[in-house]
Amino acid sequence: MADGSRDVFVNCAFDADFKPIFDAIVFATVRSGFRPRAALETDDSSESRFAKIQQLIEECPLGIHDISRVEAGGTPPLPRFNMPLELGVFLGAKRFGDTTQKRKRALILDVERYRYQRFMSDIAGQDIHAHGGDPAVAISEVANWLRVYSSAANVPGGKRIAEEYALFCEQLPARLASLDLHPSDVSFNDFRSIVSVFVEAI
Amino acid sequence: MRAHICLMVTSAARKSPVRKRRAYEYLGTTSDGVRIIKPPRGRGNLTDAQIRQIVEGLLDSTGLRRKSEPAE
Fold first, then answer.
1. In chain B, which among 42-61 make CB contacts under 8 A with chain A?
2. Which residues of chain B make contact with A150, given a CB cutoff of 8 A?
3. Is residue A1 a part of any domain in this protein?
């Protein structure tokens, strides 16, 4: 893999509706022996968000891009294009970057496998994977994809990781409540730390 | 000779700058042999002690706590 890095850029929506899928992707990435990274990991307001994203993309040889949240919303209803934009930057780095950047690999996820043809037909020919909005399926897709890039022989399959994740999710709110915390108090960095320490002990 | 030197210079100039291999700190290894990367410290809202307390509770309540030594 490119310069031995195990950093995975997670390009997803961060809103509450999408959180179950985002958290599932983070869990599967850690469980597979990689380090998930997202724009949420820095809160330095002096740096532009897009500059942060570009730096993350440069540093990550692998990218998981979920383009499923493009529905129109708001008044007037407009689609969300951040994820397709960041996918474009990632593919551009792979196309025009140096030797390291050219080794980038991407997993593109959507709700349905061929839906992207209606809003992003230029990426036709890419292998798009569907999760159907189901965190367990997203975990399976991520785990199966990352296994190819893992040097560990014993990385578990998606089904087992999904079972572990279901138990984790079932118990996490109560564990947080015992410390007077609500899930919304847990930042991306906190969640990644909790998952990492938890997974290391199983 | 001059052409030969030119070729050598061009070849050297084409080489990418030397990149340092990323050095990770690892938290440890799971029971099935997966090495888990230590996440960066000090960038969240929770203290290390709170994270450890949450995880200890999770390991007990999920029943997933490792019972055997990590696989090599």
1. 43-46, 50-55, 57-59, 61
2. 34
3. no
Residue A27 confidence (pLDDT) above 60? yes
Q: Is residue A46 part of a domain?
A: yes
**Partners of residue B66 in chain A, C-beta under 8 Å:** 201-202
- A89 pLDDT higher than 90: yes
pTM: 0.88
Within a domain: A64: yes
A159, A175, A178: best to mutate for the B interface, most B CBs within 10 A: A175
Give dist(CA A169, CA A162) in Å, integer: 10
Nearest CB neighbour to A175, from listed B29, B33, B57: B57
What pLDDT, on a 0 to 100 scale, did the predictor assign at position A62?
97
Task: Report the CATH number that the domain containing residue A58 is assigned in CATH.
Answer: 3.40.50
Is residue A2 in some structural domain? no
Name the amino acid, one letter, at A102: K
Supply the ipTM of this predicted assembly.
0.87
Q: Which of B15, B16, B22 to mutate to test the interface with A (most CBs of A within 10 A)?
A: B22
**What range does the domain containing A39 cover?**
7-200
**Residue A2 contacts residue A104 (beta carbons within 8 Å):** yes
CB–CB of A106/A90 below 8 Å?
yes
Tell me how many domains chain A contains: 1
A30 shares contact with chain B (CB less than 8 Å): yes
